[in-house]
Design a protein that fits this description.
The protein is mainly β. Helices cover about 15% and strands about 40% of the residues.
């Protein structure tokens, strides 16, 4: 089969669409009523590095609109092993790293999820936030996964008196 330029572009576009959904699954769709085109969409995704963490994100999706509302919520839980190697592999800067991103409008508004490591309490923090101010606020939510009881936990040294 000979691939023309048009077929190549079609294959590339299909591959890109497939990649944008990696690690994410739709698990819920709640209608907000018969007189609205807005729904609450619930997605599940697994942290790409700390694979023992699964997060569920709820956000509003406005069908027939150019922009979805910025409201969102996140809840993350330990669903598998968390190893020391996983913790060593993550970004430990104060700003952490973006591990999930979804477009919420054609005007550059995104919902992002950022993982931040709190070394003092040995806790993984997952922050879901909108990248565009709405009604004077950047909407955000937070979930925390303590490492105590996992292989990723490092027993603190005794304090010297």
């Amino acid at each position: 089969m000979k691939l023309t330029k048009g077929k190549c572009l079609l294959v590339l576009a299909a591959a890109l669409v497939g990649l944008t959904g990696c690690g994410e699954e739709d698990v819920g769709d709640v209608s907000l009523g018969i007189f609205t085109f807005k729904d609450i969409k619930i997605n599940r995704f697994t942290d790409p590095v700390v694979t023992g963490v699964t997060c569920h994100v709820a956000s509003i999706e406005a069908n027939l609109s150019l922009s979805d509302p910025s409201n969102n919520s996140i809840e993350c839980h330990r669903t598998g092993p968390i190893t020391r190697q996983m913790i060593e592999a993550i970004d430990k800067s104060k700003s952490g790293e973006v591990i999930f991103k979804r477009s919420k409008s054609v005007l550059l508004k995104n919902m992002k999820i950022r993982r931040i490591y709190d070394a003092e309490s040995q806790t993984l923090l997952y922050v879901a936030y909108s990248t565009k101010e709405t009604s004077g606020s950047f909407h955000h939510s937070l979930s925390a996964i303590p490492l105590f009881g996992t292989e990723g936990y490092i027993k603190p040294l005794p304090k010297v008196q």
